[in-house]
Amino acid sequence: MFVAGDTVRVKDEWPEAVGPVHIRTPWYVRGLEGQVVRCLGDFPNPEDLAFARPAERRPLYHVRFRKGAIWPEAKPDDELLVEIFGHWLERP
Amino acid sequence: MDKEAQRAHHDLGGASKFMCEPVDIEPHGLTAFDREVDALRQVLAVKKLGSVDELRRGIEAIPEADYHRLSYYQRWIRSITDNLLRHGVITEDELRAALESV
Amino acid sequence: MNILEADSDRLLAAVRSLLEKKGIVSTAEVQERMAVTDAASPGQGARMVAKAWVDPAYRALMLEDGTKAAESLGIMMRGMPPLGVLENTAELHNLVVCTLCSCYPRAVLGYPPFWYKSASFRARAVRDPRGLLASEWKTIVPDAVKVRVVDSTADYRWMVLPVRPVGTDGWDEARLAGIVREGDMIGVTVPGV
Question: Where are the domains positioned within chain C?
Answer without folding.
Answer: 9-38, 41-185
